[in-house]
Amino acid sequence: MSDAPNPNPAEAAKPVEPESELQYILSIISLMLGFLFLLGGFLLFISNSPIQSREGNFRFVIAIGAFLFVLGAMLRLGAWAEALRKRSSHQALNSVLMSVLAVAVVVSLNWIAHEHNFWRADLTQEGVYTLSEESRTQLAGLQRDVKLFLVLRGNDPEVKDVLDSLIEQYETASSHVKHEKIDPDKLSQREVETRLRDLELGTDVMDEDQVLGVVVQSGAQTAEGWKRDRSKHIPRADLWDEEGGGHGGPGKKRFVGEQKISSAILEVLEGKRPKLYFLSGHDEASPDDTDKAGLSSLTSLLRQKNHEVAELKIAQGEEVPDDCALLVVAAPQRPLTPVEVASVKRYLERGGDALLCLEAVFARQQSGPTQFMRSGLEELTKERGVLVEDRYIVAWARNPYDGRLGLVDDIPFDEFDLAHKVVAPLMRNEGRISLKGARPLKVLGTGAGAPTALVKTGADMSKAVRSTDDPLNIKSSVLPGEEPGPFTVVVASEKDVGPVPPPPPPQPEGSTEPTPEQPKRPRSRLVIVGDVDWMTNSYLTDPRFRNLELFQNASAWSMEREQKIVGKATRPRSYRLTMDEGTLAFYKFLSVLGLPTIALSLGVFVWLIRRR
To answer: Is the C or the N end of the chain the one with fewer CB within 10 Å?
Structure first.
């Protein structure tokens, strides 16, 4: 028998030398610093910051991070080996792998959603990332092809964020809209010059103001390629407006690309822009006045929508110009002369269209009741079946502070004629029109050809709304010459002014040309409003009311451009924060990969601490 003792496996195993406290601390510090250096190097790699331009900097940072990470792991190599033999370590490793898998799934879903736009939600107050109803209506009526050329750098964050989505919606809204991207950074110098020359732009790509932007062209797609008809270039800088930013500081930027592109589409398709004349010379509201009572906001919106705006003074013997698409009379404070009234009348009789805002203008007399000023157009409106009354609309309302009952002249009107194109869309959007000190209108006659009352006070306001013929002598509880409502404040009139044109000649037999449409009978359209404040700067774009839509629809109907009628017009008021490319890249990385990675690292760190 052998005298050698039977070895005990437990005794035979060599004990693992425990790591020192210093070694443990150095290992944790090295691992965390390594991770931070790796993360910083990756951020330098994906950003376009000036730091990256110094050759090798980001590689040097990544190398340091990798060295520190490996050093930290080597310092605890024995502890890792011992930990992996424990059952609890297997469970912890399983948890880490599951966490890595979850992070990978989240990152993959973020990448897929970002690249393919399966679903988007526009959370901006004014819908910066959503095509407006106004543009969709315009696109739905396109009969000719339009092509949008995006001459922009591919790494432009503002373009990638906003414009790509907008152009995609343009194409979805109409099959007549196509687009093509031209990235100067991805083409050779010769290719860039050729493409820019074809678009009638400058060939110096460094001159970004003259080159970069959106080119809108009308034309047709032929077998030889795209054949343009008209072209309009929108510089990149014009896609954004900057407001504020006094004392040399940056201002807020708001995206106006949709308005610019939609306006350019109209311009290249129509060629000639409709021209609106604002009558002047009688202290009317001015289209260039930026005060609260001015019309500068209206002028700006009209020009954005491809309209020309000009003021008109009718001299002795002159006529309203033939290129006048719409004559706007914005509350004259002094009477028109008989010659001027006759000129306006002749303009309407030859098929002209007009928007007359005839508010209550009055002056205090030495004694007696209020004297209303007559503009001189009241007889003309009466001939068209509309009586402009010498009265002033007010309403009883309680003061929100002391609860006292008093009179106000700032009144919302919410009853519309649902059969008329001008106001029917406003009712569908639960709209209201706000007027101040309006003058009531009365429709004379009924039946076919009679004017239409478009806007009036609703039934729920009949007890509160009153009119007076002596507004300057109103007392706290006495309303002189009081009359109850309801009151009409907007009327539309349409009148044939010429014979029916003869039908077009028939097409020759076998002709493939489409049959010409029957020419329309000449007619004059007139919209009369008993106030002008509703379209001034202080009221027009107020989102609580549909004053802007009323003007747009009334002018579109008057000019027989009814495809431009909408229920909700664009109010460009949204702003965005602008970041440079490096900052934007950092936040993209942080949201998609950085935060999950940091959370995973903290979890591992806590696990290591708790093992002690």
So the answer is: N
Q: Which of 293, 297, 369 is nearest to 331 (CA)?
A: 293
Buried/exposed 525-547: b ≥16 CB within 10 Å, e otherwise: bbbbbbbbbbbbbebbbeeebbb
Nearest-CA neighbor of 152 among 82, 61, 239?
239
Given its phi and psi angles, is residue 471 left (phi above 0), alpha (psi -120 to 50 degrees) or beta?
Answer: alpha
Say if CB 470 and CB 482 are below 8 A apart: no
d(CA 23, CA 435) in angstroms, rounded, equals: 80
The tens digit of pLDDT for each residue in 172-213 reads: 888 899 998 888 888 888 888 888 888 877 666 566 667 788
Q: For residue 113, what are the CA distances in angstroms to 122, 164, 187, 372, 576?
A: 15, 15, 28, 65, 22
For residue range 385-400, list pLDDT tens digits in order. 999 999 998 887 766 6
Q: Which of 400, 378, 382, 401 is nearest to 390 (CA)?
A: 378
Query: Would the pTM of this model clear 0.85, i.e. be above it?
Result: no
- Name the token pair of 448: 């076919």
DSSP letters spanning 442-485: EE---STT--EEEEE--GGGTTTEEEES-GGG--SS--TT-EE-
Structural domains of the chain in order of their starting residue, each with its CATH number: 19-116+584-611 (no CATH), 133-267 (3.40.30.10), 272-498+520-564 (3.40.50.880)
Q: Where are the beta strands (DSSP E) in 140-297?
A: 145-151, 177-182, 213-222, 225-235, 240-243, 252-255, 275-279
Q: Is the pLDDT of residue 245 over 50?
A: no
Residues 451/492, Cβ–Cβ less than 8 Å? yes
Q: Residue ranges of the alpha helices (H) in 305-451? A: 338-349, 378-383, 424-428
Beta bridge partners of 330: 357
One-letter amino acid identity for 242? E
- Report the chain's C-alpha Rg in angstroms: 36
* Contact of 241 with 256, CB cutoff 8 Å: yes
| pLDDT, averaged across the chain | 78
Residues near 142 by beta carbon (within 8 Å), at least 6 away in sequence: 174, 176, 177, 265, 269
Phi, psi (deg, nearest 5) at residue 459: -65, -30
What are the structure tokens assigned to 536, written together? 């001034």
Tell me, what amino acid is at 595? L
With a cut of 80, say whether residue 47 has pLDDT above it: no
Q: Rounded CA gap, 437 and 264, in Å?
A: 38
